[in-house]
Amino acid sequence: MASTVATALSSTHLSLPKQTLTLPLLHKPRPFSSLPSHHSSSPSPSLLSTAPFPSPSPLHSRKWKLSAATEEVLEPVEAQLPEPVEAQIAASSEAAKGEDVFAVVMIGSRQYIVFPGRYIYTQRLKGANVNDKIILSKVLLVGTRTKAYIGQPVVTNAAVHAVVEEQGLDKKVIIFKYKKKKNYRRTIGHRQPNTRIRITGITGYQDFPAETMPETVPA
């Protein structure tokens, strides 16, 4: 039975009808000459006639402009130099009647060279308050441009007038103590009290015998 069916299938030929399948074209082919201009080597005139790019926005904002506009323009101010020492001495030497004068005065155990109009720092003057007027009577020497009054040991009747301006302290001094192999170290700070006085005048030396200074001959 099976061999009969196989023989029948081999002897018969199946014939199927031939059908043609056609698909619609999405794009109609165009010739090479009708291609758009952007495929060609020469640039299109429409691209050359485009508008230029807009300029970039400034980096600073409007807020910065407003703050910059309200800023005041500061003009440079020249630094005022202090008057020379000679001018200060000349302006404050009314007691010497226009004659330049200086003195060597002893305050405590120290000697100071003083000029009218200048200030000096001395050791603390006990009992002296600010704006107090004081008189220094231990004047060892008085000198002018032409004369010298040398005391023996002081210039008789000479006096230096001054005004107390400030009661302060000197700069700090560090005291360090150390002992080796004993683990001993001590650090101490000290500020010495001082007084600043302003010299107002030198008087009373005119009656003391003076020594005339030799005239200086210019070289």
TL;DR?
The protein has 219 residues and is an alpha+beta fold. It contains 4 helices and 11 strands, in the order ααααβββββββββββ. The strands form 3 sheets. Strands 2-1-5-6-11 form a 5-stranded antiparallel β-sheet, with no helix packed on it. A 4-stranded antiparallel β-sheet has the order 3-10-7-4, with no helix packed on it.
What does this structure look like?
This protein is an alpha+beta fold and 219 residues long. The strands form 3 sheets. It has a 5-stranded antiparallel sheet with strand order 2-1-5-6-11, with no helix packed on it. Strands 3-10-7-4 form a 4-stranded antiparallel sheet, with no helix packed on it. Strands 8-9 form a two-stranded antiparallel sheet. It has helices at 2-11, 45-48, 62-69, 85-92, and strands at 101-107, 110-114, 119-123, 133-136, 139-144, 147-150, 159-169, 173-179, 184-190, 193-203, 211-212. The chain starts with a helix and ends in a 7-residue tail after the last strand. Residues 63-70 have low confidence and may be disordered. The chain has 4 helices and 11 strands, in the order ααααβββββββββββ.
